Amino acid sequence: MSQKTPDYVEIVRSVTELLVHGFGYRYAHGASASFQQERSNASETLLLARLQARPGAPPLPQALAELSPASAAPPAAIRQQLHRKLIHAAPSPRPDHPAAGGHYFDFEHPENNEFLLVEQLTAKSFTGQQKLDLVIFVNGIPLVVAEIAAPGPAGLGQGLARLQELQHPAGVPRLFQCVQVLLIVQKDAAYYAAPGSPPEAFRAWPDPFPLSFEELRRLLASLPSRPNDFPTPADALVAGLLAPGNLLDLVRGFVFFAPFPVVEHARLARPHQWQAVQLAVRHLLRSAGAPAWPDNGGIIWHPLGTGKIKTLSALVVKLRRIATFHQTTLLLITDCEKSRRQLVEACEHHGLPAPLHADQSDLLARLLRQHPGATVLANTDCFAEHTETRVGQPEATAQPPARALIALIDCHDHGEASEWSGRFRRALPQACLVGLTATPAPRNRQQFPVGMRDYLHLYTYRQARQDGLLVPVYCESPLPERQPQQTTSTTPAPAATGHPVREVQVALQFDRISAIAANLVEHFQHNVAANGFKAMLLTCSDQATALYYQALAAHNLAPVAVRFAQPPATDSSWRDLYLNIPDHSHALHRLHTESGPLLLITSSAAGLATPPPELQAIYLDQPATGARLLHFAGLTAGMGAPFKMNGLLVDYWGVTANLEEALAEFDPQEVQHVLAPRFAEARFEELQRCHLAVLACFETHLSRLSTEQWLLALTPAEARQTFSKTFLAFVRLLDALLPHAQARKLLGEARWFDSIRQEAASFYFDDSLARAQPSPKVRDLMARHVEEVPQLSLKEYVSVYDKSFEMEVERLISPLAKLARLQHALLHETNLRRARDPAFFEALLQRTEEILRERLQGRSDDDATQRRLWEQITILRAGPAATAAALHLSEDARREQHRAMANEMLAAVTPALGIIDWNIKEDLQREMRRQLKRVLRNARCPSSAVEPLTAAVMQLIHARFGKKVVYRRS
After folding, report:
1. Which of 269, 283, 483, 509 is positioned for an S-S bond with 254, CB 3.0–4.6 A?
2. What predicted TM-score, i.e. pTM, was given to this entire model?
3. Please, is 655 exposed, middle or buried when counting C-beta atoms within 10 Å of its C-beta (0-12, 13-18, 19+)?
4. Which of these three, 788, 821, 846, is where a domain ends?
């Protein structure tokens, strides 16, 4: 973003004032003489004088060797290595005195560090010099880079592209090796991410925690030039992320890396993860001196798919660094292998003692007894056995020292956490329990132990959806007549299923399973597999699992995976079915690793702590209410898969017939956004509103015989942004409701709007329109709709090689429509054939884009642009092997053209050559370069070649007319 724009000045002033006057930062401008004296050249990425100024800093040779690696490793691996070095002590030059190494930051006392904000930092790249809008140095080490962007989606896209350009090998990649946070700051928005992150990883930081909004308003009111005290998104991000203590804490413990051997970009904690850890640690520290230590636990509620594993890992690392808990044993109970692996990797990365693993009751007891202050990992079965064997024994009743044990339990729901709390009271009475659950606590919590009644932190479904971490989940009941009849029979439930006998008997009827299987196959193919997603069929028993597999096999549904809770008894009636099902031991592995559609049939979701984001649907054929129902819905709510806009809960049992009753135990405010009927009338009304919103982007009564007037309506950038946003909302809702008959009525409209989107995206070089694509499911149904409805008139694409192409273009009325057709044809054919001859088609593509860019910039009118596009089509038709004569461009004509250009260049620089000492006067040489570039551009020289040609011509001029000097690019 240009420094001269009012928005840039306002944003920089606002951020600078808050950081300097509000949080004690220092400020320097990159062009100031005082700051330039701190760097010997623009290639330096560290401020060496400031790096050495802090007491306890590492010796300079060690610091330079540590922080300036010369490695051929991937950038993500280098950043991970440097992060490990930044949070640890530097190597000591004296082996006999390890403490002499020093630390780069004083994490425990943020006030002992120097925070410097530099505006317009100059950094040297391979192609020249780059200007970075804002860079934050802490003790001379760059930790934050901020790009100031123009308002709106277009400005955001430009900011993202600029940050990617700076991190590219041709940019300043060495600067970003130590950087931990990237920011994009706009007038009305602000986003953050880790270096190397893709565009979709940039998120808002909307909370100034630990400051409240009232405290932030008072701080803003105290600033000298602040027009008002109303916090902007940038203010919230600066206060919550860049406050000195927050920034250092985030860098130290909230940068997450993928477990070895995966090498990918780092991930920064989300605001809810950061807040949960801070509040939990604050609560435990406050309770450490309380006499009722075991009763001071609590619950952290983060829905499935919102990063609960990373929250748990960050909490363990944070507790391990606090002196109060150095001798406290941390017992982590989880069945999630990913969670265990994440914790082990985190401890290794942060230089903490490796966790001890306990897979047997005796081993767990021994570790707790013999290793005080250790971190112990155990699964639920191991600890359940431990509680059963230790209750009543002397060591179980012995009172360990206060604050000797903190137990962190990773569980699905609040009831499970409370059950574990009771077990801890019996086996380890002095343990303080912190439960991390995926579902909320019931309204009536008096029945639970004291330590399990209160939230330490909660992150609701509504918040997760607003932050883009979860998708909405919808439920439907396609076969209500096949739902098992509810019974008041007191017949006990069989131990294998836990469900009433009568309902299980009804559920196992052959005709019922056959009917559901037929419906499921159709639903899966049209709703789930159409977008390449996966689904689970949850049955009421292992026998039902086998029967469903047999019924689905008759419909040739593939691929299907089967998972049993336990093998059948030898005399079981369905044992033969079990033995004939292939490879059911790796079903969960297949669900996570196989690409493309897959249906998993199982009677239990146990072991699926981290469902893959491609899991979209749960076909439910077992009773489920309360936390169990929420858990099943949460399995399908994860984000991350392309085109996944919602999850589905397809109910064959009847549990969603009355959602209010099924979720009556919870606070309605906490579960109001977790489940909703898929085909509610309000959703079809919303679809109609979305359709009208797209139509509102254009004038009424436009003809659909041509796209000309529709394209003209999208000329302003604001109109294209509105169209992209409304069209995307329309097709996303259409995807959620298809193939319902009411939604199918709008397929023709969707197809027409999509054709407008494609042509407008190509003509205007609009990335937002190019990205606003319908899902594969919607595209397939639109194509089928065109075949089924012959009266739908859509202009078919005519290739430039077709004899009728000229006639098709001439039939268009407006020059804009002709340009759109020529451009669309050129770009389409060029991209289609690029792999055949990359050099030829890349050059053709660059020339086409340059022609259209000149028109948008007003340097070429419509007639000239159309004539030049026809020339490119002639070149395209002739092909790579064409000669200059075949293109009517003879060598003699080309030679004459070049001679004329040379004469024009000489005439342009002759006045300057008559001035004494022109070859050492930079202002004259700058004017000469400007005149040469003008001649080259008038000759339609490609923009990428203007700079090197100018440099070469200047060197020739120096060699011919005067003393040669080094040419420097302007």
Report:
1. 269
2. 0.79
3. buried
4. 788
